[in-house]
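Re: folding output
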Amino acid sequence: GHRCAVFEPVHGSAPDIAGEDKANPLAAILSVAMLLETSLDCPAGAAQVRAAVAAALDAGHRTADLLLDDEERPVIGCRAMGDAVLAQLGDA
């Protein structure tokens, strides 16, 4: 049967940076993969979400918290990272 659960990133909603387009949305996006796999019995959908996140990162997209000290990449915000994952998901 189906299991009921709550899926959310453990770091919370980052109220200190609300409205500043600085948050990293990847944990929230990956929680959708957990929902698909665990409660909705859709492992293929979960795999697509995870692959889209990996592809966005492989393409070089980084929010400020993911940028290494020695990296010279542009930093993107929450909306742009979400868009990057969506673009990859559209390619799946």
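--- second protein (sequence, then structure) ---
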Amino acid sequence: MRIDGKTRLLCLIGDPVEHSLSPMMHNLSFEELGLNYVYMAFRVTKERLETVIEGFRAIGVKGFNVTTPLKRDIVVFLDKLDPRAAKIGVVNTVLNDHGEFIGFNTDGVGVVKALEDRDLKLDGLSIVLLGAGSAGRAIAYALSEIPCRLTILNRTAEKAKSLAEELSDGLAEVSWKQLTIDSLTECVPRADILINATSVGMKPKDAETPVPKRLLRKELIVFDIVYNPLETRLLKEAREVGATTLDGLEMLLHQGIEAFKIWFNLEPPVGLLKKAIEEVRRRRLGCR
């Protein structure tokens, strides 16, 4: 990678960011495509967010990604939101369009693309989504554009209900329930796909699982967007019963591909990125 006086910056902001694989992915793309850019990760707290955004405007960054805990807070500092991001109220990707900062959300699209990348046709399938927070909202909105049957389960019933009502004019048939052992027992055995968008299973809660193993089965597709740890207890137990599993690196890869398209209106080197992500997975999980 060359860095000179014409090199431009893209980056990730959030707290923490040290674990992020986004710099690896995007810098690989820049090098492969001969783009004179560099991608870096910066730890930014909520208290410094406004100052950082003004700094980005001053130096003319090309764009940036936003991660926890800034995905909602960033909205008020942007000039415009993509229609989907405006509905979700959550931004993970920002484009500098000739000085105008425009917010997008590629998280939900990333999950859908990851599923479709497994040659899954989602039309007509029954999908259970756990969580109605920032990630859950993004995923639910993306799924609402598909004629599937979507059930949203959330610990706070009012959030699940509110989100389901927001999606009532989409293509999906959307229902909701409070996330309890009873609702899991009712919904998971009838589901084709289970998506965990809660923090249960993420460190330091990695000994926990949002779904009892007895409810999992071979025919189920289980997608856990957590990637720290990479194999959560949910995914481990799903694998043990023979279910198809997708981990958080799948979402990371595909949301990153969508962000790259927004910044450059170009397709990144998807094959190269998949190989890099698979190498990360192999190192983290061993030879299995």
